[in-house]
Every structure is written in structure tokens, then in C-alpha cells.
Design a protein that fits this description.
The chain is built from 8 helices and 7 strands. By secondary structure, it is α/β, with parallel strands linked by helices. A 7-stranded parallel sheet has the order 3-2-1-4-5-6-7, with helices on both faces.
């Protein structure tokens, strides 16, 4: 399906791997010029080379630490003509209220929560001045079913869901849509590393992580989320704003 995204400039944070890279692939296939932001310059360069070898779009990369507000603001100032912002950077560790100390809690939130908020604060006025733009926050289904053993992440995700709904509820008058996607379990390197840790604890053998892969529902693939992101970025979703789309194979409903 042609989503009429050709020429629409997209900034994807956490764009060098996993869901972010999958979003880059889908948007590149639609003809969107890309800006990818992440911490690792080498991972970004690998992503750039791969994408430009397969798609006829430009790919610019930005090695930045988006947990630092000034870096987020500098990135936005450098890119005043972004049509699509995909906030995706940040992974919050597991742990209950006592296992996760204040310093680690703040570190995780500085990137995942304040990183999203800071970029929205910086990019939104630029989009408003042009009268158009789409902001898509990739959050996480843990915000819909908070658990004690993932309290830092579940609480962060719930906050970003509220943030998306509040900002998106009034954004259409400025020509901007603000939406979110809540992925469930997605088969990325992060999930494999997590399961390897569980396999080490259970079997004393991290290589047996595949035995712990859930079967019902199965984990999704990064492109499952990227396809939702691309649809929401397009004018086919022009009346969707201030809402959160859950893509989790139905597990939230259990």
C-alpha cells in the first residue's frame, strides 16, 4: 500500500536497531528521507550503510544522548523541517521497587520519559509553525498492565501514555497529530538477552533461552510495530490523535 509518505522527512530515535531500525526500513520503503538518532555512532553507521544500499532515500545519522535535555534541543534545532517524529529511544530495566534504586530509576526515566518529552517540546513548535506534523511515541504495553517486577518501566509507560493523550487531544488544531504505539513482547536482541538471563537462572545455561520464548501469543516481530507506525504517520490516519494503539497479540486482554 502506498501511504503517500514519499518525501516526508522522519526523525527516528533509537533508530539503529530493533523496533527503531524496523521503522526506518518501512518508512524508507515508502520514500521517506531519514534522520536516525542513537548513542552508538558505529551502530548508526551500520544502519545507514544498510538502508542506503537497499532504499533510494537519504539517511543522516546523529550520535546523541537524548537523556540530556540540551542534546535533544540541539538535535531539534538542527532539524527544523521534520514531518514525522518517532520517539523510540530507551529501554528500562526490570526490577521491583526495592531492586531498582533511585539513581537507576532516574537514569532510565531521563532517556525514556524526559527524552520523549524534551523532543516533543522542541519539535512541536516547529511543526506548528508549518501547520503540519505527526509525533509517534513508541511506548510499551507494560503501561497498560503494570507489574511490581517491572515497576520502573510500567510506571514510565503509563506516564507517556497520559502525556500522549493529553498533548494529542488538542494538537489537531495546530495541524499536528500525536499518537502512540504500545508494543507487547517483540523479538529483538533485547528480548533475547532478557530470556538468556532467565535461562541462566533456570537452567544454568543462557543458550537455552529459546525454550523460554512464549508461544501464546508468540512474540511479535519489529516490523509488526513498524507497519503500525507507518500507517499512523500517514494521512490515512488523519483523524487519529491523542490515542494509544496496542500491538501485543492480545496479551493485554488476558
Amino acid at each position: 500500500m502506498d501511504l503517500d509518505l514519499k518525501g516526508k522527512v522522519a526523525l527516528i530515535t533509537g533508530g539503529s536497531k530493533g523496533i527503531g531500525l524496523a521503522c526506518a526500513e518501512v518508512l524508507a520503503a515508502e520514500g521517506s528521507p531519514l534522520h536516525l538518532a542513537a548513542r552508538s555512532a558505529s551502530d548508526l553507521l551500520d544502519a545507514k550503510k544498510d538502508l542506503e544500499s537497499r532504499f533510494a532515500v537519504s539517511v543522516e545519522i546523529h550520535s546523541v544522548d537524548l537523556s540530556v535535555g540540551d542534546e535533544a534541543r540541539r538535535l531539534a534545532a538542527h532539524l527544523p523541517d521534520i514531518d514525522i517524529l518517532v520517539n523510540n529511544a530507551g529501554a528500562i530495566p526490570r526490577g521491583d521497587l526495592w531492586q531498582t534504586g533511585e539513581a537507576r530509576w532516574r537514569e532510565a526515566w531521563d532517556l525514556k520519559v524526559f527524552g520523549y518529552i524534551n523532543l516533543c517540546r522542541a519539535v512541536y513548535p516547529q511543526m506548528k509553525a508549518r501547520g503540519c506534523g505527526v509525533i509517534i511515541n513508541v511506548i510499551g504495553a507494560a503501561g497498560e498492565r503494570p507489574r511490581l517486577d517491572y515497576i520502573t518501566g510500567g510506571t514510565a509507560n503509563a506516564a507517556l501514555m497520559a502525556f500522549t493523550r493529553a498533548l494529542g487531544a488538542k494538537s489537531l488544531k495546530d495541524g499536528i497529530r500525536v499518537v502512540a504505539v504500545n508494543p507487547g513482547l517483540i523479538q529483538t536482541q533485547r528480548l533475547e538477552t532478557l530470556l538468556a538471563g532467565f535461562a541462566q537462572s533456570k537452567f544454568n545455561d543462557p543458550t537455552r533461552w529459546k525454550e523460554l520464548m512464549p508461544a501464546d501469543p508468540r512474540p511479535g516481530m519489529p516490523e509488526d510495530i513498524a507497519n503500525v507506525v507507518a500507517f499512523l504517520a500517514s494521512d490515512r490516519a488523519q483523524y487519529i490523535t491523542g490515542t494509544v494503539v496496542t500491538a501485543d497479540g492480545g496479551i493485554t486482554g488476558y
